[in-house]
């Protein structure tokens, strides 16, 4: 891969979002110190600029949320040149007025996972700022890129649960009582690993269901989640493409450069 073909921008596709490009792509296989990523990285063009795409769950949804190789995925993207990432994902809503089909650009997250490797720094006293977990530049670009026909909510807190099960009603009601708006299974540790590798990162969330505590009935079912995502995948992809095409800078922003003045135990890829 030549320097002109190295993708500085990337999209990580979530459940139901297994491909991104319409034209020809190159497949880049990357080995990392953390094993293989979920799939080879596809590199194609969006508005003439090279962009990487990685399906988070694998090309055939081989990985459940708690088994996704998050460390390998983020390391592999950084290794091929990526510095800024959009991460579209499916979410449950904790608000009855944000129903299926709504799009949210989260600005906060709450980690409710357990046992997932969540750092590249197990020693040496390395700590990263994570008060604002999403890149403000990428969030603003996504908001400006939304078609007028698609209403995008500009703020939201996403609770990331362990999975693969959905929430109980009691858990869902508890999350809502905290003032959190969204539930997801994959947004962490992906976001913090991007920050540790000094890559800008922003989620774009598509609501596929009302979480169990919001309404009565059978609760959340996986088949319904996938069906709702499929109904919205066309315009959702267009929103992501528009955001990628509109990103003005392809270098990490100052907010996401968290290691200034710090001696790291290894070089970033």
TrEMBL record:
Residues 9-223 form the Nucleoside phosphorylase domain. Phosphate binds at residues 15, 56-57, 186. This is S-methyl-5'-thioadenosine phosphorylase. Its EC number is 2.4.2.28. Catalyzes the reversible phosphorylation of S-methyl-5'-thioadenosine (MTA) to adenine and 5-methylthioribose-1-phosphate. Involved in the breakdown of MTA, a major by-product of polyamine biosynthesis. Responsible for the first step in the methionine salvage pathway after MTA has been generated from S-adenosylmethionine. Has broad substrate specificity with 6-aminopurine nucleosides as preferred substrates. Pfam families: PNP_UDP_1. Homohexamer. Dimer of a homotrimer. It catalyses: S-methyl-5'-thioadenosine + phosphate = 5-(methylsulfanyl)-alpha-D-ribose 1-phosphate + adenine. It comes from the Bacteria. Pathway: Amino-acid biosynthesis; L-methionine biosynthesis via salvage pathway; S-methyl-5-thio-alpha-D-ribose 1-phosphate from S-methyl-5'-thioadenosine (phosphorylase route): step 1/1. GO terms for molecular function: S-methyl-5-thioadenosine phosphorylase activity. The record marks 167, 222 as: Important for substrate specificity. CDD domains: MTAP_SsMTAPII_like_MTIP. Substrate binds at residues 185, 209-211. The keyword Transferase applies. Keywords: Glycosyltransferase, Purine salvage, Transferase. Belongs to the PNP/MTAP phosphorylase family. MTAP subfamily.
